[in-house]
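Data card: per-record layout.
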Amino acid sequence: MKIVTTLDVGANRMLMDTARNTIPPDDSSGMEIAIAAVKPGTGEVLGFGLNRHYDATPEAANDATKTSQNYAVDAIDGGGSGWTIGSSWKPINLVAWMEAGHSINDNLQTTTAYSTSDFSCGSYTGGSELWKVQNAFGTTVNPESPFLGLVRSHNTTQASMGTIMKLCKVADTATELGYHDARTGETIEKTSSYTPSMMVGSVNVSPLTMASIFAVYAANGVQCNPIAITKVTDGDGNDLKVPSANCHQAVDPEIIQTLAYTLNQGVTRADGQGHNFQLNNGRKSFGKTGTSEDLAVSGGSFIPNQIAAFASVGDAQAPYSHRIANIRINGVYNSYWDGSTIAAPALRNFLNAYADAKQLPIDN
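The structure for this 364-residue chain is written out next.
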């Protein structure tokens, strides 16, 4: 039997090097990093980066430097139950907002408490609970536009957007972009994550799924299901059926161009939260970080039409009892870790190495 995969040996090596340079396998923190990368417009999985060594033998079960799971993929593919991703979700909200016919420059009234009934729609009843939400360091900015809400990564603006376009629209857009739960494989409206807090990333998703979503942003709105095999030939020379990426135009290119502009502004503006995504040689850079209440941190980035990648960092087995806070990682102590302090630099280092190795032109 002959199997042809999509994996890029060089890219996979760079991903592994990036992961282990970011958090060594024997790091005293016990934290994990999982990275996935895909080729935009194709669905082709280029590789994975894991800081722990893969070893499925019984002897490795109690070795903290080894793992029998690939935490970058869904449970059905040998991964875990997914990661919470915080603000890395927010580009989905902006796509939904524009698809609903709204402007990214609308001035929205914000607050720090919203009734869940304000988000109700056909598939979400809402209830009468109060969702208390604030920005990373407290309070809110009122008024604020969706554009600035993404550039500054403000939570309260996401909530205001949700009360206007409703949760069903956000769920529909997430499905359109390729989102599904890492543990169950279900779309978000069928999971317990289907609450307003999903708009600030309280979900369970694999880095591969998120890399594939960022690939939609990198491919001008073309969505593809991730694939790792392109051809299988049996011993008699017969070609066997392999999964299709089912690539199609999922989002209006003009909407994606506006999103890409906003993500780039998050990197370049003084009030942006994505400075650590800036690539070498002045290459135009795009990215979004996420932080999930010390449970995990994350980030997604891409080079248009070339590559998209997503990283999650935390303790995949015990995020609630082993939080990513007040901890030393790879010799650096921080009381507060977020996506910009570890996930974004990891992706920046990988994308710089990939761009150099592939001699990608700087097309700004």
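Known properties of this structure: The first helix runs from residue 9 to 22. The chain has a mean pLDDT of 96.

See the next section for split statistics.
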